[in-house]
Design goal:
By secondary structure, this protein is α/β, with parallel strands linked by helices. The chain contains 30 helices and 13 strands. The strands form 2 sheets. An 8-stranded antiparallel beta sheet has the order 8-9-7-6-12-11-10-13. Belongs to the autoinducer-2 exporter (AI-2E) (TC 2.A.86) family.
């Protein structure tokens, strides 16, 4: 018998000795430390070259939009750059002349204020010297000083004082003196000249520079391009918002000082606007000068107090109203990272580093978001929470802090709904708890999670009470574990909020005695929920006993932790259940449709005043005659190609049917008599009616899991599994129909992709109405909680 030599693992050396994993980690950390030290050293010792470059790139980010506007209007690149640069230089020279003239006027007037300054200082001195709280302290200090002076005078001294020797020479030459004065003055001018040259070159050949940066970043071309675009947009927006904030601060400052009577009010308003470009320190420095001048001008204290009140008021308004409104998420940096970055760059590059700290840190953040090898920058610097919502709540429960977990849950619910919270976040918390049950969690942790979830659900039921019902038609049962029972408790609350009276039954071992004790007389539906991935054996026995005891009972099986992409068409019949649901939202929808009153409420809304106005707007377009078919087919093909889906179609909804106006491929279906090439669906079976009714985009990652679409004839005929649709909204706000993309396999779609679909939809509306349409505002930048696998409306 031959023996097979085991394959050498990557954790062993060439001599067969095992390399400890901790040793590998230490080497990796040491390599990072050495690399960081080298980079910081290069930044420090190369600051004479790097600072002008950084300033030049920063200014080019601010000026590039102006250059692009001029180029788009037909002006050559060189002429556009020259015009922008000359305009900026002229404005800076004008600003310098203004400041110089104001300073000269003030310097001529300052001697007139000397008497006021002397009288105020004398008055302050008298106030300090008058009897007060610290007289005893001052007297004690004076007595000690007198005793020390007496002791020093009485002490014998045999030391001979050395004679002072003065060396008299020719002194420095006039040339040396001139050089000594000129060198410090010429250094800033030389730096300014370098910055101007760099800005001109960057603006002149921005495309070539972008190509070189993309080549240096390497890796994925799409990610490198996105990184540069995102950095440019964030920095440009930050600088524009900073300019607006500073101007809206400087103008009221100047006008307020003018009304108070402080001389040089134009100078102080301009200085306040300029100094606010320096974070943290600039506003403080700009406030010193007008306060000092108010102190010198007014013999009393009224002008000083009024100037101080004006500055404090403007600071409060700017910091708490103007800046949060304008900045928003323009940088994406957290408050802590902004302060840490300001400290780091100031220590490295001095005052200029403080000014450049935010744009430079934004560049690092963008690199972390787009380059996987630098992802730690996003964790360290970004304003996005490091943990997603389910993990944050789960961690708070492990830490025995259910109060904070409740605060996080309340904030999430305020942005969506209770059912959406249970679906997206609550079930995910329980999934993490079930996965950690044997792997990591101790007994104490398990108890904390269970108790914390009980308290959390109790608080949520009190904050979002459901209508009381005399009789529960639906019973929810947790299959086996405690997490199953908690999920069943969530489902009971979600069903009650949806108008389906439900009750919870305790989880227990599935025996004949347990089934008999359920007391299901008068109950229509039972839902059994499991987090186990393979509960078939237990389910079959449970369902068999339920069927034997209550033959007419409808049974729903909830598999909260089913693997992605699994098929359940034949599994329900094999297990003996009526249907299988995979999410909280799907369970609520399917069990709501089992209620007769809920089925009636789920029908499409009747005609109303707004619906009549919408139909009139559709009729004015005459789009149903098919005159724009070629253009709409082209837009549908573009959408299908961009989003890489099976097909896309454009449809309009009138009072009787949904008509497909454009399609990327020939779709089977019913044809109209007047337009044989136009497919239509009766309104009761239409797809875009959900978009029209909700007035929002509709995203269905898997149509088989959504009862609104799973039995739709068109969905079945087209074999559609994924459906996403955005409304076709006119300038008046009427929704004519929808632009839809369809794929034959389940998938997800991001908010940024929906923004692109909105842009194509605006082009469709322009073709239909022959008027420009408004593109909706982009959706939130920060990543939202993971979507459920069931279709849901996309929040604005």
């Amino acid at each position: 018998m031959t023996s097979q030599r085991p394959q050498q693992s990557s954790d062993t050396s060439e001599f067969g000795d095992a390399v400890p994993e901790s040793g590998t980690n230490i080497v990796r950390v040491a390599a990072w430390l050495v690399t960081g030290t080298v980079i910081i050293s290069l930044l420090y010792f190369g600051q004479d070259v790097l600072i002008p470059l950084a300033i030049a790139f920063l200014i080019s980010f601010a000026l590039n939009p102006l250059v692009r506007i001029l180029v788009r209007r037909g002006i050559p690149q060189v002429a556009a750059v020259s015009m922008v640069m000359l305009t900026v230089i002229a404005m800076l020279l004008g600003l310098g002349l203004l400041i110089t003239s104001q300073v000269s006027v003030l310097s001529a007037e300052l001697p007139a204020y000397q008497s006021t300054i002397r009288s105020k200082i004398a008055a302050l001195g008298q106030t300090v010297e008058s009897p007060g709280l610290f007289d005893g302290v001052f007297q004690t200090i004076a007595t000690v000083q007198e005793q020390l002076a007496t002791a020093l005078e009485d002490a014998p001294s045999n030391v001979t004082e050395p004679l002072a020797v003065t060396v008299v020479g020719d002194g420095p030459s006039p040339f040396a003196t001139t050089i000594e004065w000129l060198v410090p003055a010429l250094a800033p001018l030389a730096t300014l000249g370098i910055v101007v040259v760099f800005v001109f070159l960057v603006l002149l050949d921005r495309g070539d520079l972008r190509d070189r940066l993309i080549r240096l970043l390497g890796g994925n071309l799409h990610r490198s391009t996105d990184a540069l675009e995102e950095a440019g947009k964030r920095i440009s927006r930050y600088l524009l918002m900073q300019l607006i904030v500073n101007v809206t601060y400087g103008i009221p400052m100047a006008l307020g000082l003018w009304a108070i009577g402080v001389p040089g009010w134009v100078l102080w308003g301009t200085l306040a606007a300029i100094m606010r470009f320096i974070p943290y320190v600039g506003p403080l420095l700009s406030a010193v000068f007008p306060l000092a001048l108010a102190f010198a001008v007014d013999p009393g204290w009224q002008m000083v107090l009024m100037a101080l009140a004006l500055i404090l008021f403007l600071e409060l308004v700017s910091n708490n109203i103007v800046e949060p409104f304008l900045y928003g998420t323009s940088t994406g940096l957290s408050a802590l990272s902004l302060i840490a970055a300001a400290t780091f760059w100031t220590a490295l590059w001095g005052p200029l580093g403080l000014i450049l700290s935010t744009p430079l840190t934004v560049c690092l953040l963008v690199l972390g978001r787009n380059l996987p090898q630098m992802a730690f920058f996003e964790t360290l610097l970004g304003s996005t929470p490091a943990l997603d919502l389910p993990t944050r709540i789960y961690q708070r429960l492990i830490a025995s802090d259910p109060e904070e977990a409740y605060e996080i849950a309340s904030e999430a619910i305020s942005a969506s709904s209770v059912t959406a919270f249970y679906d997206d976040i609550g079930l995910e918390v329980l999934r993490q708890a079930s996965e950690d049950y044997h792997a990591h969690a101790r007994v104490e942790h398990r108890l904390r999670v269970v108790d914390g979830m009980d308290r959390l659900l109790e608080e949520l039921r009190e904050d979002h009470p459901a209508p009381e019902a005399s009789h529960a038609s639906t019973i929810c049962i947790g299959g086996k574990w405690q997490v199953d029972a908690i999920a069943a408790e969530m489902l009971v609350h979600a069903l009650a909020l949806a108008g389906v009276p439900a009750e919870l039954r305790a989880t227990g071992v599935v025996t004949a005695h347990y089934v008999d004790g359920l007391e299901l007389e008068g109950v229509d539906t039972v839902c059994i929920g499991y987090f186990s991935r393979d509960p078939d054996t237990a389910i079959r026995g449970f369902v068999r006993r339920l069927r034997r005891r209550w033959p007419g009972l409808r049974i729903t099986l909830a598999l909260w932790n089913a693997p992605d992409g699994a098929e359940f068409a034949d599994r329900a019949e094999a297990l003996g259940v009526d249907q299988i649901v995979l999410s909280m939202d799907e369970a609520v929808r399917r069990m709501s449709l089992m209620q007769p009153e809920q089925m009636a409420a789920a029908s499409l809304p009747a005609s109303s005043e707004s619906e009549n106005a919408r139909l009139e707007a559709l009729a004015r377009t005459n789009i149903l005659d098919g005159h724009a078919r070629e253009d709409l087919d082209e837009l549908a093909a573009r959408a299908a190609d961009v989003f890489d889906v099976t097909f896309a179609f454009i449809s309009a909804l009138d009072a009787e049917a949904e008509y497909i106006l454009g399609q990327s491929m020939d779709l089977p279906g019913q044809r109209t008599a007047s337009q044989p090439s136009m497919t239509y669906m009766p309104r009761a079976e239409s797809l875009c009616s959900h978009v029209v009714a909700s007035n929002d985009p509709v995203v269905v990652p898997d149509t088989e899991r959504d009862p609104r679409f799973s039995d739709n004839p068109s969905v079945r005929q087209w074999q559609a599994r994924f459906y996403a649709s955005v409304p076709l909204r006119t300038l008046e706000g009427h929704i004519l129909g929808a632009l839809s993309i369809v794929d034959r396999s389940p998938r997800q779609i991001e908010d940024a992709e929906l923004d692109l679909l909105d842009k194509i939809a605006a082009d469709v509306v322009a073709v239909m109405t022959k008027e420009n349409a408004v593109v909706p505002e982009p959706r939130r930048e920060e990543p939202a909680a993971p979507r459920s696998i069931l279709g849901q409306r996309v929040p604005d």
